[in-house]
């Protein structure tokens, strides 16, 4: 991965910089994901895998994992 990532967070996260939230950034052909209060821990995934995760969360298919 080269260059500086431009991180984005949901507008639903509010303007409070002390509030933790999930941030995403484009990294070449991958998507980078991190939690704002732990910025050095970054997960890399494809757009297709991220879409699948979001669909699973929204549908409730992953509820038994927590």
Number of domains: 1
* Cα radius of gyration in angstroms: 13 Å
Mean pLDDT: 87
Fraction of residues in H or I helices: 10-25%
Count of runs of 4 or more consecutive helical residues:
1
* Series of secondary-structure elements, N-terminal to C-terminal: EEEEH
Major sheet size, sense and barrel closure: 4 strands, antiparallel
As a percent range, the share of strand residues is 25-35%
Q: Could you say which structural class the secondary elements and strand pairing correspond to?
A: alpha+beta
Distance N to C terminus? 32 Å
Features:
4 strands, 66 residues, four-stranded antiparallel sheet, 20% helix, alpha+beta
Structure characterization notes:
With 66 residues, the chain is of the alpha+beta class. The protein has one domain. 20% of the residues lie in helices and 33% in strands. The protein contains 1 helix and 4 strands; from the N terminus they run E-E-E-E-H. The protein has one helix at residues 47-59, and strands at 8-9, 22-27, 30-35, 38-45. It has a 4-stranded antiparallel beta sheet with strand order 1-2-3-4. Strand 3 (30-35) and strand 4 form a beta hairpin. The model has no long low-confidence stretch (mean pLDDT 87).
Briefly summarize what is shown.
The protein is α+β, with helices and mostly antiparallel strands and 66 residues long. 20% of the residues lie in helices and 33% in strands.
Question: What is the secondary structure topology, with strand pairs?
Answer:
Layout: E1 8-9, E2 22-27, E3 30-35, E4 38-45, H1 47-59
